[in-house]
Amino acid sequence: MNLTSKEKFAFGFGALGKDAICCFVGNFLMFYFTDVLFLAPAFVGTLFFIARIWDAVNDPMMGLIVDNTHNHFGKFRTWLLVGTLINAVVFVALFNTFGLQGKSLYIYVSIAYILYGMTYTIMDVPYWSWLPNLTNDPHEREAVSVIPRFFASLAGFSIGVFGLSMIDGMDQLFGNGDRTGGFRSVAVIIAVLFIFTIGVTIVNVKEKVTETASERTSFSQIKSILFGNKQLLAYIGLLLSFNLCMQIINGVIIYYFKYVAGREGLFSIFNVCILAEMGGLVIFPKIVKKLGREKMFAMACAFPIIGLIIIAVAGFTAPTNPFFIILGAGILKLGSGFELGVVTVSIADVIDYSELLFGTRNESIICSTQTFLMKSSQAVSGLLTGVGLAIVGYNATLPQQSDATLNGIRIIMIAIPMIFAVLSYVIYAKCYKLKGKYLEEMIQKLNEVHAA
After folding, report:
1. What whole-number percentage of the chain has pLDDT above 70?
2. CA–CA distance from 399 to each of 250, 259, 402 (Å)?
């Protein structure tokens, strides 16, 4: 199976709108809840975490539904279309309060956020589980996998750099100065972009369609597929650890710059450095051929630590100097780009390994773990941020925070992500086996099975 250049671009282009929604929620939803709607930080963090408990069941179930879908339109395209339309509506509703206040507002945002997570799963699971089926050439996979990640990073760059400016600009046009109108308007713009970009993917990328199933996956098989594959468990561990590293940074960074550095505008400068992440994805296919995935992942885990150290030192010596923010964030994001390249290719290897173990590929069930881990890392980072801010005495109504609060924000922003970066590398080095000679042997065995 091979792809045309048009299909490669069209598939990757879909990630632009999809991840624009994800990045807007990841970067601004906590801030929107605490500093715009003035909801209690501990409540918000707890909500983010509790919603993921439901996703532990919801996401694999969606994978099961996709794997068992067989029609003339294609199982991936069917649910990608349905999920996109529903999630776009729920996403817009998430940033609308409809004049609710008090307990009613707390109940509304809880329902809206849980529905957002569920409907995002409907779209995200078929998108990423479609990727391993676009081509069966391992080298082409490495080249293709970076395209959607590149567009995802472009979405993160656009939202991170221009998000606050767009919110404030739209609020001046359609709001009353409290930023609610700005958030609402930007959400509508992103939802339209989301539908358009996924539409390009659905129209231009062909899917190998099977209208009847030779073998259906049952609900009882999910446990074996998810927990009987040790390499999937290792993959879950290393990806969750690294995602937590990055999502905790993303969740607290706006508070760090607003209060610790005393310059909220540094948030946009920090996100300009997502260009380094995009650059890391562009050069990934060439570098990985020379260095191998193991060294690439080692650099991916080391670079965020180096970047955070630079930002931490600058926070004491030159907190408002953009040079050190650009330097530290650039190194951090370059490591993130390398990590995205490695894990995107690795999920296809895990699916191949699962096929050897169980005789069925079950792409969507396995890829549902990736969706769950992304949302889980956002939720745990939200919990740590929300509860952490409450513990250190953060008060959104105060223009300045106490020294104890500022030091607490430093710990959440710098120290905790470092721990997760180290943990991710340890899991990859000690537990994850699908690399080097072991991976080559697995691919050879799989080809023999297919040939037979």
Report:
1. 95
2. 22, 8, 10
Burial of 320 (0-12, 13-18, 19+ CB in 10 A): middle
Closest CA to 404 of 417, 416, 391, 385: 391
Spatial distance between the Cα atoms of 408 and 429, rounded to a whole number of angstroms: 32
Nearest one of 385, 372, 451 to 413, comparing CA atoms: 385
Task: Of 57-71, 108-122, 251-265, give the range with the top mean pLDDT.
Answer: 108-122
Banded model confidence at residue 206, pLDDT cuts 50, 70, 90? confident
What is the C-alpha R_g of the chain?
Answer: 21
DSSP codes, 331-369:
HHHHHHHHHHHHHHHHHHHHHHHHHHHHS---HHHHHHH
Q: Which of 158, 82, 162 is nearest to 120 (CA)?
A: 82
Average pLDDT over residues 296-323: 93
How far apart, in Å, are the Cα atoms of 90 and each of 117, 187, 188, 381, 390?
9, 10, 11, 22, 28
Are 417 and 245 a contacting pair, CB within 8 Å? yes
DSSP conformation letters of 60-114: HHHHHHHHT---SS-HHHHHHHHHHHHHHHHHHHHT--TT--HHHHHHHHHHHHH
Give 44's DSSP letter.
H
> Average pLDDT, stretch 368-394?
78
Euclidean distance between CA atoms 185 and 187, whole angstroms: 5
End-to-end CA distance of the chain: 18
> What pLDDT digit, counting tens, does each position of 315-336 carry?
899 988 999 999 999 999 999 9
What per-residue confidence (pLDDT) applies to 1?
55
Scored b (16 or more CB within 10 A) or e, 54-85 reads ebeebbbbbbbbbbbbeeeebbbbbbbbebbb
Mean pLDDT of 153-174: 91
Both structure tokens of 211:
């209208």
DSSP state of 216: P
173: tokens are: 């046009």
